[in-house]
Specification:
The protein has 38 helices and 40 strands. It is α/β, with parallel strands linked by helices and about 1250 residues long. Among the domains are: about 240-320 and about 505-575, Dimethylsulfoxide Reductase, domain 2, CATH 3.40.228.10; about 335-500 and about 1040-1055, no CATH class; about 1085-1190 and about 1215-1245, Barwin-like endoglucanases (Beta Barrel). It catalyses: nitrate + a quinol = a quinone + nitrite + H2O.
């Protein structure tokens, strides 16, 4: 390299020659080599990871030189697996390898920012008002001032502020809101604690201490599969990816493993070397298809139809024609199939009703405790029994909540009958709803009667009330529902797979487009493998199925297949659902920290889907009615009204939470109750009955019942997950938006009955939006205050995932750059300022809190039989029974900071626990006093300190059974009292193990088995969900205590979903009203709009990263088929516009043969901050993927107070589905970058 200049005539070095001129002595400088040597030199390596909700949870080496992060590489020191298993490493992906770019890029947020208009008003107000709260009031109570800065949201205008100034404004706004409207008018959104659990806890702890509302995320993201709570009473529990290697047949159904589970994909490819067959099921030719032996491509949204057909084959060949002993024993012991169901008389036929309970029979079968919650079966001797394990045994008595095959009354061993066929009293004609003949014009239908009559064996029983009733079993109902002929001359059952009857392979071929031969083959192979291996057949599934409106039907279809084949709870088998990084393994240690349960209980939680549906006024544009969702067998007049009416009814019956909760400041209620000489609870009950206090959701737009302050951290709510983006811009933020449709008042739609309608919706509901981030995201652009947070290489935290069994850290490899701070330090600073500012406005206050009926508590037995609404006079208002719990919380507002930075006394007074069990934590608190030291004085004197994020991490690690062996033994002992079986042996070998934060910084540590989860962390078996249910005989937390295939709640039955059915995608009616309305002269076409996860980012993170932009096309893109592109005159890389009544977006077209006609894909989540021109439709900067979506909630997801169908934070509730949406696609004519004159170009000039 030093001689390259010698090639030039006038740049030659002179030097002495030798060897007769054949050699020359030169002085060569080799300093240039130092650059290469020093490129890889570093001062230290620190372990950290990426808190990005990708499920990878990969450990990385962070290289530091001269106090700066220079690069990162993958760690390779995970604890080794068994000799017969591949190790977990390598774990990582290109996205994670590019993260260090962010730290010192122009995208990095360096200083606290405030919107200029707001800052000017704030500083002027401070000059006039010495009290910050009065200064804030002078701004926000002036309608013109408030409107002025709200309208500027999303339009730039940020200026640098200081921590002192922003903290004071935030605190003043919070104090004003608490004092004037109530603490529940303050909310915070942050997702997926597992990815950085201390960072999540920082904001949630502050909000919980002041009485604010923590918004859910798992349901809002539509990562929550409602079928899991419905079937197992579990939010989500799945196998670790290493267990794929134990499988011998894998179907990857709607999960693009190499693209979205990159660090785990090696297990998928490695298991193929063992001979495991792999099958891909995706509508498009995704990357997963290249790794599989067979690819099935059903029409998007029709997966339940194919699953039903596969189930038909499995039941026919492996349960009826040639019953397999393993399958028969499995469904008898571990499912609700033997349980009896009452048949209800209809006009000329029967309908399946609720499950028979012990309380329905004379003397309640000898059951005195909760007989209305104990399911009934017939044993092999023909006797009626209430077998152990149903949820009635869980509460109020001990020792019989187990899956031993015993009569719950006598304790005698018993074998349950699966079918009444052969011992029936009569054959009954039973009706089943059929929805496969309806739906939108864009999907195939098979026209059959909307009520299919099937013949079932039934017995007639005498009931305790003197009447008689016919009963049949869930097994018999299932066989009939799948259309299986059992010698009963059932005209609606199929004689062969070629009959076009529900739900045969021939029927499914017409719906899905998949050849029946392929359906039969895969079903047969899957079941045969499960029979021979005792359950080692697995289905890996993800967002591809879960983001549809009828997502529970899709998932129940797959779950039924697994249950029929005995796969759930067996290593190498089962349901492997992967979406967000939901597995917060040390959950029970984290909850007291996050929700301040160490100081006060309960915390305020809210399901985000209902929250945003209400407060962003998306309900005002709803086009879907309950009538079109109901079963054809029900009297539809009983379910009148708008979808939001169902949500309001669910709130007042205690099924769902509400936020804000009541139509008055909850701090005022205790004061008024004292004046009336009543307790706050009695006063609230009386006022609700009289109507002087109403639920806030009934009057969401009266100016008092909406959120006021919103904190967003660890999230890009407005650039990634915000379904109904344009509605949020208009109604929450009060800024420019792109809504194209008309509200119900203008279009003449069905208006609510329970919710007060106002012709003009309320815009700009949020007074203050505060966002914490390390980069300038779309959400930051719409915020009022932006706080620079530390990156994942600049703070201490912890990370876990469902994909592997380890807990490992985020570590501060370097100090936070510029003026950024960790989330813990930011919220600690806000808490300190709040404690100062609130003096004189707030002191010790009594806060009235409503709490929905909780799953995993005795209250889940609140409403056993029928649905009764107290407001309609059908029952009395009884808190915690027919309505939400009404509770009081004593808040000490000036002590907020002291409480934030210490562990409260409730951990010793009440203890800790989770999922229905509890244990004493005195010894753990003693340890924390030694680890963290104690407060020397003040309101928290003598309590363990939480000064730093590491202190918070130590609290989690010490209190959690997954990281403290002593606690694990106590937790298993607590569960043993319920089951009557000893489970402590699962943790005694780890009793002395206590994982500390420094331990996980040295190496990732494998967690300890805990009853919080249903699998085992063991050296002999990989983690798999349901393992302890099957092998330890611990019941599932459902009505029957078994895997619940039959959902007998009245709403489930009336909406036609007690059993699995095929429900086509709903018609959102969002394209016809706008098609052709604003034509640009180019052809337009309606296409189904899907948003799968992308290759070049994790959600929106990395989407603006220069390295990822360079590898990808660099900006928003939409994939479409060659067929649709040809029809629209679109070529690859053309600018196109995608729009409907919800809004519009612009992007470049990717034309590909891998995409089927009729659908388009915009990979989630591409932000509006990179390479985005203006929209011809809206005349604004083109929107994001959520600009064309709107939430439509499903009433069956609102059910509560009913065993497994009861509310829990992120456990059950309405979900933010979006894949049923259709859009209009067209080629753009003009490209306007909205950045000055002369940039309005025609399409051809920019290609």
């Amino acid at each position: 390299m030093s001689k390259f200049l010698d090639r030039f005539r006038y740049f030659k070095q002179k030097g002495e020659t030798f060897a007769d001129g054949h050699g020359q002595l030169l002085e060569t400088n080799r300093d240039w080599e130092d650059g290469y040597r020093q490129r890889w030199q570093h001062d230290k390596i620190v372990r950290s990871t990426h808190g990005v909700n990708c499920t990878g949870s990969c450990s990385w080496k962070i290289y530091v030189k001269n106090g700066l992060v220079t690069w990162e590489t993958q760690q390779t020191d995970y604890p080794r697996t068994r000799p017969d298993m591949p190790n977990h490493e390598p774990r990582g992906c290109p996205r994670g390898a590019s993260y260090s770019w962010y730290l010192y890029s122009a995208n990095r947020l360096k200083y606290p920012l405030m919107r200029k208009r707001l800052m000017k008003m704030w500083r002027e107000a401070k000059k006039l008002h010495r009290d910050p709260v009065e200064a804030w009031a002078s701004i926000i109570e002036d309608a013109d001032k408030a409107k002025s800065f709200k309208q500027a949201r999303g339009r730039g205008g940020f200026v640098r502020s200081s921590w002192q100034e922003v903290n004071e404004l935030i605190a003043a706004s919070n104090v004003y809101t608490v004092k004037t409207y109530g603490p529940d008018r303050i909310a915070g959104f942050s997702p997926i604690p597992a990815m950085s659990m201390v960072s999540y806890a920082s904001g949630a702890r502050y909000l919980s201490l002041i009485g604010g509302t923590c918004l859910s995320f798992y349901d809002w993201y539509c990562d929550l599969p409602p079928a899991s709570p419905q079937t197992w009473g579990e939010q989500t529990d799945v196998p670790e990816s290493a267990d794929w290697y134990n499988s011998s047949y894998i179907i990857a159904w709607g999960s693009n493993v190499p693209q979205t589970r990159t660090p785990d994909a090696h297990f998928f490819t490695e298991v193929r070397y063992k001979g495991t067959k792999t099958v891909a099921v995706t509508p498009d030719y995704a990357e997963i298809a290249k790794l599989c032996d067979l690819w099935l491509a059903p029409k998007q949204g029709t997966d339940a139809a194919m699953a039903l057909a596969m189930g038909h084959v499995m039941l026919r060949e492996f349960h009826l024609d040639n019953p397999r002993q393993y399958f028969t024993d499995y469904v008898r012991r571990y499912t609700d199939m033997p349980m009896l169901v009452m048949l209800e008389e209809r006009d000329g036929y029967y309908a399946a009703g609720r499950m028979l309970r012990a309380a329905d029979l004379v003397d309640s079968l000898g059951q005195e405790n909760n007989p209305e919650w104990k399911t009934v079966a017939i044993n092999s001797n023909g006797e009626m029994v209430a077998p152990n394990g149903s949820i009635g045994f869980r509460w109020g008595e001990k020792g019989k909540w187990n899956l031993e095959q015993r009569d719950g009354t006598t304790g005698a061993e018993t074998e349950l009958q699966l079918s009444l066929l052969g011992s029936q009293d009569e054959i009954a004609d039973v009706g089943f709803p059929y929805f496969g003949g309806e739906g939108s014009e864009y999907f195939n239908h098979v026209a059959l009667d909307n009520v299919l009559l099937h013949k079932l064996p039934a017995k007639r029983l005498q009931l305790a009330n003197g009447s008689s009733a016919l009963v049949t079993t869930v097994y018999d109902l299932t066989m009939a529902n799948y259309g299986l002929e059992r010698g009963l001359n059932d005209e609606n059952c199929a004689a062969s797979y070629d009959d076009t009857k529900a739900y045969t392979p021939a029927w499914a071929e017409q719906i899905t487009g998949v050849p029946r031969a392929q359906i039969i083959r895969i079903a047969r192979e899957f079941a045969d493998n499960a029979d021979k291996t005792h359950g080692r057949s697995m289905i890996i599934v993800g967002a591809g199925l879960n983001h549809w409106y009828h997502l529970d039907m899709n998932y129940r279809g797959l779950i039924n297949m697994l249950v029929f084949c005995g796969c759930v709870g067996q290593s190498g088998g089962g349901w492997a659902h992967y979406v967000g990084q939901e597995k917060l393994r040390p959950q029970t240690g984290w909850q007291p920290l996050a929700f301040a349960l160490d100081w006060q209980r309960p915390a305020r939680h809210m399901n985000s889907t209902s929250y945003f549906y209400n407060h962003s006024s998306q309900w005002r544009y709803e086009t879907v009615t309950a009538e079109e969702l109901l079963s054809p067998m029900v009297d539809k007049s009983r379910y009148s009204g708008h979808l939001i009416d169902f949500n309001v009814r669910a709130e007042r019956m205690g099924w769902l939470p509400s936020a804000p909760q009541l139509g008055t400041n909850p701090l005022y209620i205790a004061r008024e109750a004292e004046k009336a000489g009543m307790t706050p609870v009695d006063y609230t009950v009386k006022s609700l009955k009289e109507g002087s206090i109403r639920f806030a959701a009934e009057q969401p737009e009266n100016g008092k019942n909406h959120p006021r302050n919103l904190f967003i951290w660890r999230s890009n709510l407005l650039g990634s997950s915000g379904k109904g983006h344009e509605y949020m811009l208009k109604y929450l933020l009060g800024t420019e938006h792109g809504i194209q449709g008309l509200d119900l008042g203008k279009q003449g739609g069905v208006k609510p009955e329970e919710v007060e309608w106002r012709d003009n919706g309320l815009d700009g509901k949020l007074d203050l939006v505060v966002t914490l981030d390390f980069r300038l995201s779309s959400t930051c652009l719409y915020s009022d205050i932006v706080l620079p947070t530390a990156t994942w290489y600049e703070k201490d935290d912890m990370n876990t995932s469902d994909m592997h069994p380890f807990i490992h850290p985020l570590s501060a490899a370097v100090d936070p750059a510029w003026e950024s701070k960790s989330d813990w330090e930011i919220y600690k600073g806000i808490a300190k300022k709040f404690s100062e500012v609130c003096v004189g406005h707030l002191g010790k206050e009594t806060d009235v809190v409503t709490l929905p009926i909780q799953h995993d508590s005795a209250a889940e037995l609140a409403q056993p039989l029928d649905v009764k609404d107290w407001k309609k006079g059908e029952c009395d208002l009884i808190p915690g029974k027919t309505a939400p719990h009404i509770m009081t919380v004593e808040r000490d507002y000036p002590a907020t900071y002291e409480r934030f930075t210490s562990i409260g006394p409730l951990m010793e007074k009440i203890g800790n626990g989770g999922k229905g069990i509890a244990w004493n934590t005195q010894s753990e608190m003693d340890l924390l006093r030694k680890l963290n030291y104690t407060k020397a004085d003040g309101p928290a004197k003598g309590q363990p300190m939480l000064n730093t994020a590491i202190d918070a991490a130590e609290m989690i690690l010490t209190l959690a059974p997954e990281t403290n062996g002593q606690v694990a033994v106590k937790a298993w002992a607590a569960l043993s009292e319920f089951t009557g079986r000893d489970h402590t042996h699962l943790a005694t070998n780890k009793e002395e193990e206590k994982i500390r934060f420094r331990d996980i910084q040295a190496q990732p540590r494998k967690i300890i088995s805990s009853p919080t989860w249903s699998g085992l962390e063991d050296e002999h078996v990989s983690y798999n969900a349901g393992y302890t249910n099957v092998h330890e005989l611990i019941p599932w937390r459902t009505l029957s205590g078994r895997q619940q295939l039959y959902q007998d709640h009245q709403w489930m039955r009336d909406f036609g979903e007690s059993l699995l059915v095929y429900r086509p995608p709903i018609d959102t009616r969002s394209v016809k009203a706008v098609m052709g309305r604003k034509s640009n002269g180019n052809p337009e076409k309606a296409l189904n709009f899907l948003t799968p996860h992308q290759k070049w980012g994790i959600h929106s993170t990395y989407s603006d990263n220069l390295l990822m932009l360079t590898l990808s096309r660099g900006g928003p893109i939409v994939w479409m088929s060659e067929t649709d592109a040809k029809d629209l005159g679109i070529e690859d890389n053309d600018w196109i516009e995608v729009f409907n009544s919800n809004g519009a977006l612009t992007a470049r077209a990717v034309v590909s043969q891998r995409v089927p006609a009729g659908m388009t894909m915009m990979y989630h989540a591409q932000e509006r901050i990179v390479n985005l021109p203006g929209s011809e439709i809206t005349q604004q900067r083109g929107g994001i993927h959520n600009s064309v979506t709107r939430i439509t909630p499903k009433p069956t997801h609102m059910i509560g107070g009913y065993a497994q169908l009861a509310y829990g934070f992120n456990y059950y509730g309405t979900v933010g589905s979006n894949r049923d949406e259709f859009v209009v696609v067209r080629k753009m004519k003009n490209i306007n970058w909205l950045d000055g004159e002369g940039n309005d170009q025609v399409q051809e000039s920019v290609k």
